Input
Amino acid sequence: MSLLGKLLYLGLITSCMCQKHDDQVMFLAGPMTEEQVQGSVLDAFDCSHPIPPGSKQQFEYLQNRGVTHFKVPLSWVQLLPTGFPGHPQQSVVTCYQTLMKQLLEVGLQPLVVLHGSTVPDSLRSRYGGWENPELGDMFQQYAEFVFGEFGDMSES
Output
């Protein structure tokens, strides 16, 4: 197993906080503050890097421990660098599809999160911040793109 894979494994297992809320749902919560997130190994597990070898075995480990869902925060910036659905970064789309398929194969349900805190630079410079309703319209297009690409791999 690579060093990145080992760090991911340790990050998932040792720095996560497991909370059982009822008999069917278990939540994993990683770093909760900006200070905790900086430099976190969890940052390395996104589709700006290849999925680490051995990830499927790590997902199986979680599933065998009773975890039912796995949070998959999607990056608007990575998926649609220009901000527009007509120009996706296909390698990133494929990476997220592979990740979700691996999760489903071992019995973990992907819990998709639309990362609205990462706005593509082209949209930020064109529309400013979230106070501009047009940026909200662009986010809706992003959400529709995500649903079209990944909707069949996640509970709605």
Notes: Residues 133-150 form the longest helix (18 residues). Residues 34 and 40 are 10 Å apart (CA to CA). Confidence is low (pLDDT under 50) at residues 1-44. The radius of gyration is 16 Å.
